[in-house]
């Protein structure tokens, strides 16, 4: 479990992370979502003790990173896939990492197998594709068999096959009971990968909730209805306090409505419908809108920022 409590990071006048509190639980993939520059990498570096918070703290299974006896056996991270000596082979890079962290060398071949790099183990890491580099980075994160794993934008720049592999791999790690925290600026990607989301904008918490809940709230809902008596239906809808736009002679679009509402209203007045469809706005557009003004939307999501340490859901 990871707990961030009032985490704040300032770089001179720049506030990169502001009073951020959230919890990442084991057994599921938790997505760390925010647009570029939102403060995700800074937060991850603070979790890993690579950056010192200006205020607040992070606890990993109740402890500060610097108090962990065997950090690599507790937390593994992939922050930068290209962080490897280009002339070293994948195997020698992992051996060096294992040695410097007191991890038995037999673990190297185990993790190479887990990420499917056995055959490339003796090749220069400098010649690896981005997908292979990501696998090598993940192998490094897994060396100490940690219960907690952090991945910073692991699918950036990967082809669909590589994205699919990483997604399945992270889900597998979570299914083993590990805590998996993965950052991304793409809601569409996270909605396929993560069960839970921590969403930030401009360094501040916007929401912590299930992915389903966030997606439901982020995509603005409207209803499209087609009827030979569309104009009559339009008046009935207006009488309910909703606004229905006519997009064709027989077609209306009603913002902020549910299909049930419109269907029942039509039935009450025996109006025949030819179509009744729920429509969602583009998820990415909605997400960009949400994160562009974190304060404005904070209370609209039904998942407000926690008010006290450890309260984040
Ligand atoms: N060492 C630093 N000195 C000054 N400003 C910094 C430093 N590191 C990060 N920042 C600023 O803090 C903010 C958050 O950056 P951060 O890299 O954590 O965001 P991010 O969500 O990971 O975005 P990205 O996906 O683009 O990396 C940005 O405005 C960035 O310019």
Automatic annotation (TrEMBL):
<dbReference type="GO" id="GO:0016887">
    <property type="term" value="F:ATP hydrolysis activity"/>
</dbReference>
<dbReference type="InterPro" id="IPR017871">
    <property type="entry name" value="ABC_transporter-like_CS"/>
</dbReference>
<keyword id="KW-0813">Transport</keyword>
<protein>
    <submittedName>
        <fullName>ABC transporter ATP-binding protein</fullName>
    </submittedName>
</protein>
<feature type="domain" description="ABC transporter">
    <location>
        <begin position="2"/>
        <end position="227"/>
    </location>
</feature>
<dbReference type="InterPro" id="IPR003439">
    <property type="entry name" value="ABC_transporter-like_ATP-bd"/>
</dbReference>
<keyword id="KW-0067">ATP-binding</keyword>
<dbReference type="Pfam" id="PF00005">
    <property type="entry name" value="ABC_tran"/>
</dbReference>
<dbReference type="InterPro" id="IPR027417">
    <property type="entry name" value="P-loop_NTPase"/>
</dbReference>
<keyword id="KW-0547">Nucleotide-binding</keyword>
<dbReference type="InterPro" id="IPR003593">
    <property type="entry name" value="AAA+_ATPase"/>
</dbReference>
<dbReference type="GO" id="GO:0005524">
    <property type="term" value="F:ATP binding"/>
</dbReference>
<comment type="similarity">
    <text>Belongs to the ABC transporter superfamily.</text>
</comment>
